[in-house]
Task: structure prediction
Amino acid sequence: GRYDSLELAWELAEAGKIQAIELSHPANSESDREEIEKIIKQYWLVPLGGSDYHGSNKDIPLANKMVESA
Result:
């Protein structure tokens, strides 16, 4: 994704070091999202949503990205 960390996400998922991963982040491209979905499905991770909302100084509205429950 934004930090070029999808390779690390694969490694952590394979090692059982993570149980969830942020799927919907405003900075993720469509191809990032597709790759994250593959990680989620392969390792049964919980998909998390994110708005990158850290206060009223952001112009990204709270809960603007939603993730369907598994």
Q: What stands out?
A: The radius of gyration is 13 Å.
